[in-house]
Amino acid sequence: MNRNYIYLTVLMLLLAAGTIIFTNENEPEQIEPEELLQEMVQPTRYISTDEVAELIIHGDPNLMLVDVRPELEYQEFALPGSLNIPLETIVEEANISYFGIPGIDYVFVSNDDIAADQAWVLMKRLGFESTYVMKGGLNAWMETIIDPQEPRDVDGNAAQELYSFRKGAQQYFTGSGNVETETSKVTIDVQRRKKTEVASGGC
Asked: Model pTM greater than 0.85?
């Protein structure tokens, strides 16, 4: 069976399971499945490892990295400033309240981009905007930022400039090389959305 069909089937099952959890009282406004499917085929939901590295280095206050891997994997290695919300708990009320903060861009991260894509679909189905997926996940991060490969002479100036950036990012995130960099984790203030209080009693 085609991998894309398997992937879409899994996503639809997750959507079904995720939306059942919410009651009519606390369910966010959901988008229509047709609209969701249209957005799923757009590449605009992806953000590259290079873009993520640049945002972290510059301490962008609008960035919130959401690591959807299990807690044990997150404890072993995680991107600076990332928030761990395992995929299976992402639609729980306590975790849903992290999303929907105006001005915040949410970037989902996993080992590759499959689990992050599933998180993106769930949040998008529930109507949350400004959500993205780090393309290739942490596997791509290791290949492009932590261990970038030097381009060939025939690859051109753009490839050389990208490699130069990646070498600088490598030094920033690993503390290697001769450049002194600040390697401490970037602090991101996480604010939960204010929940609407329901007045007790009747009219």
From this structure: no
